[in-house]
Amino acid sequence: MDMAWSALGLSLKVAGWATALNLVLGVGVGLLLARVRFPGRDLLDTLLTLPMVMPPTVLGYYLLVVLGRRGWLGSWLQESFGINLIFTWQGAVIAATIVAFPLVFKPARAAFEAVDGQLEQAARVLGVAEIGVFFRVTLPLAWRGILAGVLLAFARALGEFGATLMIAGSIPGKTQTLSVAVYEAVQAGQDEVANTLVLITSAVCIAVLMTAGRLAPGRIANR
Amino acid sequence: MELEIDIRKTLRSGKRSFHLDVRLRSSGQRIVIYGPSGSGKSLTLKAVAGLMRPDSGRIRLGGTTLFDSRAGIDLAPQARKVAYLFQDYALFPHLTVRQNIGFGLTGGWLNPRENLCHEAVDYWLGAFHLEHLAHQFPAELSGGQRQRTALARALVAHPRALLLDEPFAALDPALRVRMRAELDELQRRLEVPMVLITHDEDDVAAFGEHVHCLRDGQIADPGMDCSEALLHDAAD
């Protein structure tokens, strides 16, 4: 039972970090793609959407190649800072972040594109600086769409299995998240543990989806 | 107020292109630019507000150079201190009437609070009979109330000039007559110089101290009668 709660705690920690990172990265990239025209914009959008359709194991393999001891980034991190991400919960955060990233930046881009540019112009003429225009007009109007995406990303990060297993492994109490623990429990024939884990996971996912549904654009009058 | 516009801008969309070449000089409290839709009057007004950057030329307003391509001057819209009334008012849908009016009075990253207390905001709420609507959102207002809110928001910061983009086009005819009279009275009282663009002859009759006719991106000869310059559009 202790193992179930520690797996839940770890899953929430990993998903929480992944969601926080995605909030910043996804909003930034979404704004960039919505507002700045540059060559290769569509290609970048496609590449960033890939994690949504690629098998997580393939993604995990890519991550191993890049972040592993002999990977170009992994060896550099090891030599320069003594950081190793393989078989750590931070590695699981990176896997969950990348897998859930398209769920944030796609709706963020759409939400920014839907903001009426005239409202931003009105704010500028009223003397409000660009940073104020973003935080006082653009972001509040796009917020609902962004938040719905962020909650979906949280749910997706919570359920991440394939890429996490490949990069972080399954060390109980250290890198064994809920979804990995379910797999291990079934493999070991511990049906009771598996039942508990599955019920916990389902309850959390349902709660997240219900919240996301409430926040979806159009449900509440646009205020 | 002296207004001097001498700008060129080419817009391309697919194979079509539109050339704006506006030269006008006017002094007066009420300047009207009259022209059919698609003649470039919105672009011209946006250029004055700094919302559209001309390819070349210069714009001077009341002795201040707002734009001069040769001298490399292009004041940001924030620095031009003009008020702009958008055709559909562009009220912030997530803010109340009070917050909308006070929007330009607060700098920084945060919107004015809902119970914002400010003398100027209270004054304009009163002047436009909006007190009882102060906590409503724009979506809950009628057309006339929206226009008054937008006017209050535009005037609250004492702008150098009031730029109006087809201010009555979004109103029904009866209300149009009333709001026209209200604006007329307001302008006389405040003595704020205004530049109004319109395709409605009634606006010209009400505000046309200095009328300039715009057609296909160019200002018609000053000597030419406006209705003559726009005669072709009657056939549309």
TrEMBL record, chain A:
Purpose: Part of the binding-protein-dependent transport system for molybdenum; probably responsible for the translocation of the substrate across the membrane.
Organism: Candidatus Desulfobacillus denitrificans
Family named by the database record: Belongs to the binding-protein-dependent transport system permease family. CysTW subfamily.
GO molecular function: molybdate ion transmembrane transporter activity
Protein name, per record: Molybdenum transport system permease
Residue ranges crossing the lipid bilayer per the database entry: 14-34, 46-67, 87-105, 193-213
Residue ranges constituting the ABC transmembrane type-1 domain according to the UniProt record: 8-210
Single GO cellular component term: plasma membrane
UniProt KW keywords: Cell inner membrane, Cell membrane, Membrane, Molybdenum, Transmembrane, Transmembrane helix, Transport
Gene3D superfamilies assigned: MetI-like
The keyword Signal appears for this protein: no
SUPFAM superfamilies: MetI-like
Topological relation to the membrane, as annotated: Multi-pass membrane protein
Domain of life: Bacteria
PANTHER family the UniProt entry points to: MOLYBDENUM TRANSPORT SYSTEM PERMEASE PROTEIN MODB (PTHR30183:SF3)
InterPro entries recorded: ABC_perm_TupB-like (IPR049783), MetI-like (IPR000515), MetI-like_sf (IPR035906), ModB_ABC (IPR011867)
Compartment(s) of residence: Cell inner membrane; Cell membrane
Matching Pfam families: BPD_transp_1
Major subcellular site: membrane
UniProtKB/TrEMBL annotation, chain B:
Superkingdom per UniProt: Bacteria
A GO molecular-function descriptor: ATP hydrolysis activity
InterPro entries assigned to the protein according to its UniProt record, in alphabetical order: AAA+_ATPase, ABC_SmlMolc_Importer, ABC_transporter-like_ATP-bd, P-loop_NTPase
Organism: Candidatus Desulfobacillus denitrificans
Protein name as catalogued: ABC transporter related protein
Keywords linked to the UniProt accession: ATP-binding, Cell membrane, Membrane, Nucleotide-binding, Transport
Domain ABC transporter: 2-234
